[in-house]
């Protein structure tokens, strides 16, 4: 149970800061840090067992049909990342307390930070591929909120949008890869996948699965050519950059490479794609880091470069290379978080991050200068610091690589070149900012930040020094456990120390240091060389591509969706004709083995009337009222057909729906011309006739083909279990409120939402209401005939009694909540029509929105109630009870659910019709037109 707590506590922590105000800054920080600190304590409590070789698991079924379980694992790899996420996360919370300005919303910042922390913890602990993807997408969404925290700034909005687009696209690709792996292995369980290397790599789907998964990893870890989003994410507050781009978001990609290394690595595809992508990214980003003038810009490209280094190590066909990659993940997190914090302090205390304006800050900020200098030295790979050890391990493994055959020497040469550039930009970062003459005309007078703001830097730099001096003591156990979880074997023999004797990797490190100093001294020549090329901003290219895509989609939409309902129907009918017609072409013959039933005269008469009414609707469509009447005849004949074939529930429903639909269309016709304009051309008429004939022919053929073939039906199950399982003899109603109750709940929810949407649209709508018919005659002044008013008012109690009767009998006889709701709604609407909206609303003073919402709530609570008794959602119960003077009756919880359906139908129907009818009451005929009335 403790493993889910590690995920749950930070999630609850996202709610804690929202309980305090922005003015309570200390309370905000300490209350936010409490739950992640407890989670870190749980992780540390499990650490000894993990280091000893234990793997802790926790699993709970979530969506078993999809293979998605709430499954978590805590092994060495998870432990390494959890310590980084939670440890550095707590330092970020302290740092942000002093970084954020008084006008910045601290509760909102901490809530976003905790949500992101939860997502990252979920990724590294997920023991199910689909669950990993869920948390993966949550990191994209929560990082979007963090990067766009200063949403008032256009750069923040654009950077957040770019990060979401790129990482979101990669996440979808990764999901496709996971689905392929799941189909190959037969499960999404992580351990089973990791143990199925031979099965996966022997399958022909390995190539697309590998490419899709790598696309997800490369986009998240900003590998070339998907690196461009990360520098523009620097528009975020510096605490966000320090957290996301040192230990968390960008590390998610390399974590994925490590986690799936046992299943996907070892092939030539993996070797070439991962190694070369990492190597290219390492050199490319290091070169551009040297050219940037913004402090965070330098750190952003250096982050991309070091991620490329780690990716390259995971690509090499060597277990020691994997260990080196894991070690550098730890080292990079410590020195890079410290450097981001130093850039934030400089920006906070001087008002700028422009290297061209900064100089000599060691005099006014000596503590920050010392800490930043040590962190930069570690990033450059200076001896006695942790970065030196992992970089020397990297150079050693490149020498052992056999990649590129006879050109294998290129790998260590290019890796050394990347190290040279790393030294150069690290030296520029420190030399230009902290040394030289004191800067003049800075926006603020520079001074040291408060000690609590420098404390996180001090802790991180202290780790850089301690790990650099005694690595075996500090990280050996953690590295052993992480390596064991990544390569599924004990860690290869490795000497973790600061001295390995005089050897070629040491020489390469010396060359990197000397070469970096040399490049720094001639950096101006490099700047002049780069100026020869046109400056291309990745953000501009991205947004230009997005604009072009939007323009293309808009052109396509304008062609397909131009406001013409006829065109929409055209595309719909053509699509149906194509899909169903292609299926019919595959049949050997249209008629199946079942013989059609003989026709009777009554059926033929009904079909004839339906066809004639349909033809009348089409032929007389210009006269809208007449065509509506013909259309209602079609609906009536369909109802009779349902009754003829022993479907009374459907017949009643169709009749009720027909009445409501006719009322709705009559109200709509009030605002429309009395006649439809003629078609634009004869060709259009021919086209419509051909489409109608084709559609009718295909549908008729499809029905005939299906009805003359033996088909397996699930109706037998419902017939056999309707009484024993649902307690009702009306199988249709039992299906709606019991067997398929969840579907019905979804449908009434949609109905309620649609009704509220229509109500809001009509509430402030102002329509032009005609004062006369198409021939100029004014509407009758007798708006509410006395006969209709008297009859409707007299029928109202009877109609309500009928609806109650239909509702109560629905579980065993034709009826139910849906039909009863329509009957009630029609009765009340008839009162509106007969007496007018004003008269009716004075007497029916209640609102219809709460009725519809209450219906959905009752149906939902009925489903939730089954949980109290340990059953699944919407599990129904029934029983027989003896009541004095009445006798034995049956009561079922499904009746409560049906009551929710009834209230939703009544509220939604009246919400639409009553408010539409209200629009027709604003017109009063003018005195000039009282002579001749319609």
What does this entry look like structurally?
The chain has 37 helices and 4 strands. It has 934 residues and is an all-alpha fold. InterPro entries: CPA3_Na-H_Antiporter_A, MnhB, MrpA_C/MbhD, MrpA_C/MbhE, ND/Mrp_TM, Proton_antipo_N. It is a multi-pass membrane protein. One of its GO terms (biological process) is monoatomic ion transport. One of its GO terms (molecular function) is antiporter activity.
Strand order in space, largest sheet:
1-2
Overall body shape: elongated
Structural class: mainly alpha
Unreliably modeled segments = 923-934
Distance between the termini: 77 Å
Count of helical stretches = 37
Biggest beta-sheet profile:
2 strands, antiparallel
Rg is 36 Å
Multimeric organization? single chain
Q: Could you give the count of β-strands?
A: 4
* Average pLDDT for all residues: 86
Helix content: 55-70%
Which band does the percent of strand residues land in? under 5%
Set out the fold topology.
Elements: H1 2-13, H2 25-51, E1 56-63, E2 68-74, H3 76-99, H4 106-125, H5 129-147, H6 154-185, H7 190-194, H8 197-202, H9 206-220, H10 229-232, H11 238-244, H12 249-259, H13 261-264, H14 268-289, H15 295-315, H16 319-350, H17 366-380, H18 386-400, H19 410-434, H20 451-469, H21 471-487, H22 504-521, H23 523-531, H24 538-560, H25 565-585, H26 601-619, H27 624-644, H28 648-669, H29 682-707, H30 715-726, H31 731-739, H32 741-763, H33 786-809, H34 817-835, H35 837-843, H36 848-868, E3 878-883, E4 887-892, H37 894-918
Antiparallel strand pairs: 1-2, 3-4
GO biological process, one term: monoatomic ion transport
Membrane topology: Multi-pass membrane protein
Subcellular location: Cell membrane; Membrane
């Amino acid at each position: 149970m403790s493993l889910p707590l590690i995920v749950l506590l930070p999630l609850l922590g996202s709610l804690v800061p929202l309980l305090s105000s922005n003015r309570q800054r200390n309370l905000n920080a300490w209350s936010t840090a409490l739950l992640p600190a407890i989670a870190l304590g749980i992780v540390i409590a499990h650490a000894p067992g993990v280091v000893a070789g234990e793997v802790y698991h926790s699993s709970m079924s979530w969506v078993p049909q999809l293979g998605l379980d709430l499954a978590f694992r805590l092994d060495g790899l998870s432990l390494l990342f959890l310590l980084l996420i939670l440890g550095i996360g707590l330092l970020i919370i302290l740092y942000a307390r002093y970084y954020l300005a008084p006008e910045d919303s601290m509760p909102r910042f901490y809530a976003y930070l905790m949500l992101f922390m939860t997502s990252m913890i979920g990724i590294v602990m997920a023991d199910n591929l689909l669950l990993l993807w869920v948390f993966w997408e949550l990191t994209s969404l929560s990082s979007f909120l963090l990067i766009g925290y200063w949403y008032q700034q256009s750069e923040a909005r654009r950077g957040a949008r770019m990060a979401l687009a790129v990482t979101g696209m990669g996440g979808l690709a990764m999901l496709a890869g996971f689905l392929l792996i799941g189909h190959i292995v037969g499960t999404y369980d992580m351990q089973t996948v990791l143990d199925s290397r031979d099965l996966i790599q022997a399958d022909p789907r390995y190539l697309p699965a590998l490419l899709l998964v790598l696309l997800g990893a490369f986009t998240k870890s900003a590998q070339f050519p998907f690196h461009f989003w990360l520098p523009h994410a620097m528009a975020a507050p510096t605490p966000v950059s320090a957290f996301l781009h040192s230990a968390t978001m960008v590390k998610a990609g390399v974590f994925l490479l490590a986690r799936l290394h046992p299943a996907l690595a070892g092939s030539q595809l993996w070797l070439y794609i991962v190694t070369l992508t990492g190597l290219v990214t390492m050199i490319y980003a290091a070169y551009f880091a040297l050219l940037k003038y913004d402090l965070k810009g330098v750190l952003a490209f250096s982050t991309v470069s070091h991620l490329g280094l780690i990716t390259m190590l995971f690509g090499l066909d060597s277990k020691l290379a994997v260990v080196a990659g894991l070690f550098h993940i730890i080292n990079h997190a410590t020195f890079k978080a410290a450097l981001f914090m130093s850039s934030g302090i400089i920006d906070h205390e001087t008002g700028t991050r422009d290297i061209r304006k900064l100089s000599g800050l060691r005099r006014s900020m000596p503590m920050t200068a010392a800490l930043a200098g040590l962190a930069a030295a570690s990033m450059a790979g200076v001896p006695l610091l942790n970065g030196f050890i992992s970089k020397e391990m990297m150079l050693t493994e490149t020498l052992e690589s056999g990649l590129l055959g006879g050109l294998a020497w290129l790998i260590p040469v290019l890796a050394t070149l990347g190290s040279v550039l790393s030294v150069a930009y690290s030296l520029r970062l420190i030399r230009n900012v902290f040394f030289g003459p004191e800067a003049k005309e800075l926006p603020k007078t520079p001074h040291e930040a408060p000690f609590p703001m420098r404390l996180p830097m001090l802790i991180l730099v202290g780790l850089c020094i301690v790990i650099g001096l005694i690595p075996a003591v500090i990280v050996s156990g953690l590295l052993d456990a992480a390596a064991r979880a990544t390569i599924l074997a004990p860690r290869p023999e490795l000497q973790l120390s600061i001295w390995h004797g005089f050897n070629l990797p040491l020489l390469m490190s010396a060359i990197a240091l000397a070469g970096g100093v040399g490049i720094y001294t001639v950096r101006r020549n490099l700047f002049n060389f780069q100026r020869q090329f046109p400056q291309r901003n990745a953000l501009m290219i991205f947004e230009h591509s997005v604009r072009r895509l939007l323009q293309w989609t808009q052109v396509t939409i304008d062609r397909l969706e131009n406001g013409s309902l006829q065109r929409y129907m055209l595309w719909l009918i053509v699509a149906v004709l194509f899909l169903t017609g292609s299926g019919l072409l595959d049949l050997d013959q249209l008629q199946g083995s079942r013989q059609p039933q003989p026709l009777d005269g009554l059926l033929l008469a009904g079909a004839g009337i339906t066809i004639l009414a349909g033809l009348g609707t089409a032929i007389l469509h210009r006269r809208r009222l007449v065509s509506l009447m013909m259309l209602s005849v079609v609906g009536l004949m369909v109802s009779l057909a349902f009754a003829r074939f022993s479907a009374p529930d459907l017949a009643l429903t169709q009749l009720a729906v027909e009445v409501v639909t006719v009322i709705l269309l009559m109200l709509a016709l009030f605002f429309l011309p009395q006649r439809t304009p003629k078609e634009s051309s004869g060709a259009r008429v021919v086209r419509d006739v051909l489409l109608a004939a084709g559609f009718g022919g295909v549908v008729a053929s499809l029905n005939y083909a299906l009805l003359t073939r033996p088909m397996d039906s699930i109706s037998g199950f419902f017939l056999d279990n309707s009484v024993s399982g649902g307690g009702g003899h009306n199988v249709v109603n039992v299906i709606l409120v019991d067997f398929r109750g969840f579907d019905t709940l979804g449908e009434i929810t949609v109905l309620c939402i649609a009704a509220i949407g229509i109500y809001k649209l009509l509430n402030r709508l102002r329509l032009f209401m005609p004062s006369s018919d198409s021939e100029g005659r004014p509407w009758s002044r007798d708006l509410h005939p006395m006969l209709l008013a008297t009859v409707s008012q007299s029928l109202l109690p009877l109609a309500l009694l009928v609806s109650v009767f239909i509702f109560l009998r629905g579980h065993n006889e034709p009826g139910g909540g849906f039909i009863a709701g329509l009957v009630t709604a029609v009765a009340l609407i008839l009162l509106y029509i007969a007496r007018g909206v004003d008269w009716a609303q004075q007497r029916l003073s209640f609102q219809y929105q709460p009725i519809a919402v209450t219906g959905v709530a009752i149906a939902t609570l009925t489903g939730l109630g089954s949980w109290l008794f340990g059953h699944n959602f919407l599990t129904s119960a029934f029983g027989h009870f003896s009541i004095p003077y009445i006798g034995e009756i049956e009561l079922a919880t499904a009746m409560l659910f049906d009551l929710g359906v009834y209230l939703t139908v009544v509220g939604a129907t009246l919400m639409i019709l009553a408010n539409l009818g209200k629009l027709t009451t604003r017109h009063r005929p003018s005195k000039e037109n009282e002579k001749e009335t319609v």
